[in-house]
Amino acid sequence: MKLHELAPNPGAKKNRKRVGRGIAAGQGKTAGRGTKGQKSRSGSGGKLYRQGGNLPFFRRLPFMRGKGMHVRNRVKYNEINIDQLIEVFKADADVTPESLNDARLVRDIRNPIVLLGRGEIKTALKVCVHRVSKGAQEKIEAAGGSIELIS
Predict the structure, then answer these.
(1) pLDDT digit string (tens) for 57-85?
(2) CA angle, 133 as apex, 129 and 90 as ends, to 5°?
(3) One CATH from 3.40.50.12500, 3.40.30.10, 3.40.50.300, 3.100.10.10 for 78-149
């Protein structure tokens, strides 16, 4: 078999119905639309959001007010708490974005990471993240660890 011999199975492909091409075609003159009326005209069918006189759905909804809803350049942080760190990392471990990603604590490595202060820590860790809360910084430094901020 050669490429030019390939063809669909008989009856698999059907020609489209060409309406409005004379009475011999079977769908001539009014082209199956009937006579007169809105649906027989070209471009008929009403507007996209028209619902037969009802108040359109998008007008029934309340307005979305406030700037907080529409901030386009908002920074989405990966939030990590201290109690999540102590479950995964041993003492004197380096906590970097890559190691957090390997431990599956980060949703999206492209977003910056912020360390929050929930939980207690007793082991010293070397933490390297984009942002740290004051509570988390105090707890890590009290445990003998260090914090390096990524710009």
Answers:
(1) 888 888 877 666 677 788 899 999 999 99
(2) 55
(3) 3.100.10.10
